[in-house]
Write a structure and sequence with these properties.
This protein has about 230 residues and is α/β, with parallel strands linked by helices. About 35% of the residues lie in helices and about 15% in strands.
């Protein structure tokens, strides 16, 4: 969860405020920035409730449902790094839909900017607006090197069902963010862990199916129509 400080990032976001840039860059390059100390793998992520890109209030637990989820905490549509990450996620999201996984983005943009950001990158998953910096303050991830925009330090968080944290990536620098292949591997591990029917070739699952124990197989006691109703 370490972040590094660089003049190129600061010049992008401070409109040429060289004094501020030099001050921030004078910090040691190996200095670490941590979010709240209890936000670690294995812990339960806070169930924030925020307005989505349409103005509707949504809770993270509602958006996740019973599935694995990728949560992106970003700066907003003004940031070229966030937009590039979102463009990659647009392609991955097509895989997430057929893999029964969820994706949510939170930024400090207002609702109008959030909707424009989502539309501009052709995304089809929920974007949440945290214009009041509720998440930023609660997690202690204010990007203090950019007082102009006052965004969150970008993070990508892979969540098991129940908002349980599996992995956290700090994305102040772009290559601190996960690649799409990193996320595939993370979701493979999470899915294997949380889906009892991951390997239906086992004798135990074959026997369970023959005994009519359908609750061990997706959609785990629900009808497919019910699962469609849970989709965002």
């Amino acid at each position: 969860m370490a972040a590094r400080y660089g003049l190129d990032d600061l010049c992008e976001t401070h409109d040429g405020n060289d004094a501020l840039a030099r001050s921030a860059v004078s910090r040691p390059l190996n200095e670490k920035v941590h979010m709240r100390t209890d936000i670690v793998p294995g812990a339960v992520f806070p169930d924030y409730e925020l307005s989505d890109h349409t103005g509707k209030h949504r809770k993270l637990s509602e958006l996740q449902g019973p599935d694995p989820m990728i949560l992106v905490l970003g700066r907003g549509g003004y940031c070229p790094k966030d937009r590039r990450q979102a463009e990659g996620l647009v392609q991955l999201h097509r895989e997430l839909e057929v893999a029964y996984c969820r994706l949510v983005t939170i930024t400090t943009d207002n609702i109008t900017e959030t909707n424009e950001y989502r539309t501009g990158v052709a995304a089809h998953w929920p974007f949440l607006s945290d214009a009041r910096r509720k998440v930023q303050k609660d997690l202690d991830i204010a990007e203090y090197t950019d007082p102009l925009h006052n965004p969150m330090i970008p993070h990508t968080i892979v969540l098991e069902p129940g908002l349980v944290i599996y992995k956290i990536y700090s994305g102040y620098w772009f290559f601190g963010r996960p690649t799409m292949e990193d996320l595939r591997q993370d979701l493979r591990a999470v899915t294997k862990k949380c889906r009892p029917d991951w390997d239906i070739t086992t004798p135990e699952l074959k026997t369970a199916w023959q005994q009519g124990k359908k609750e061990l197989f997706y959609p785990y006691g629900k009808t497919y129509a019910q699962t469609l109703g849970e989709q965002d």
